[in-house]
Specification:
The chain is an alpha+beta fold. It has 1 helix and 4 strands; from the N terminus they run βββαβ. Helices cover about 25% and strands about 35% of the residues.
Length: about 60
Protein backbone atom coordinates (compact mmCIF):
# COMPACT_ATOMS: atom_id res chain seq x y z
CA UNK A 1 0.00 0.00 0.00
CA UNK A 2 1.29 3.46 -0.92
CA UNK A 3 0.20 6.61 0.90
CA UNK A 4 0.14 10.18 -0.41
CA UNK A 5 0.39 12.90 2.24
CA UNK A 6 0.20 16.69 1.97
CA UNK A 7 1.79 19.24 4.30
CA UNK A 8 0.24 22.65 3.55
CA UNK A 9 2.48 24.50 5.97
CA UNK A 10 5.69 23.28 4.31
CA UNK A 11 4.06 23.07 0.85
CA UNK A 12 5.13 19.47 0.27
CA UNK A 13 3.62 16.24 -1.04
CA UNK A 14 5.04 12.92 0.18
CA UNK A 15 4.73 9.36 -1.16
CA UNK A 16 5.51 6.64 1.39
CA UNK A 17 4.66 3.09 2.44
CA UNK A 18 4.37 4.02 6.12
CA UNK A 19 1.58 5.79 7.95
CA UNK A 20 2.58 9.19 9.32
CA UNK A 21 1.29 10.34 12.68
CA UNK A 22 2.52 13.93 12.47
CA UNK A 23 -0.54 16.23 12.59
CA UNK A 24 0.92 18.55 9.92
CA UNK A 25 0.80 15.78 7.30
CA UNK A 26 -2.72 15.05 5.96
CA UNK A 27 -3.54 11.84 4.13
CA UNK A 28 -4.58 12.66 0.57
CA UNK A 29 -4.97 9.09 -0.70
CA UNK A 30 -3.99 5.44 -0.58
CA UNK A 31 -3.04 3.42 -3.64
CA UNK A 32 -2.21 -0.20 -4.33
CA UNK A 33 0.44 0.62 -6.96
CA UNK A 34 3.32 3.07 -6.95
CA UNK A 35 2.30 4.29 -10.41
CA UNK A 36 -1.11 5.41 -9.18
CA UNK A 37 0.43 7.04 -6.09
CA UNK A 38 2.96 8.96 -8.22
CA UNK A 39 0.24 10.13 -10.61
CA UNK A 40 -1.91 11.38 -7.71
CA UNK A 41 1.02 13.06 -5.93
CA UNK A 42 2.22 14.75 -9.13
CA UNK A 43 -1.28 16.08 -9.77
CA UNK A 44 -1.44 17.65 -6.29
CA UNK A 45 2.11 19.04 -6.50
CA UNK A 46 1.49 20.57 -9.93
CA UNK A 47 -1.90 22.03 -9.01
CA UNK A 48 -0.64 23.66 -5.81
CA UNK A 49 2.97 24.24 -6.90
CA UNK A 50 4.26 22.10 -4.01
CA UNK A 51 7.49 20.13 -3.72
CA UNK A 52 7.11 16.40 -4.40
CA UNK A 53 9.18 14.04 -2.25
CA UNK A 54 9.18 10.35 -1.52
CA UNK A 55 10.57 7.90 0.96
CA UNK A 56 13.62 6.09 -0.47
CA UNK A 57 12.31 2.81 0.93
CA UNK A 58 9.16 3.23 -1.17
CA UNK A 59 10.93 2.51 -4.46
Amino acid sequence: MFYVYVNKRKQRVLITREKIRDPHWRLAGTHSTVTAAKRHARFIADARDYILEWDLLTF
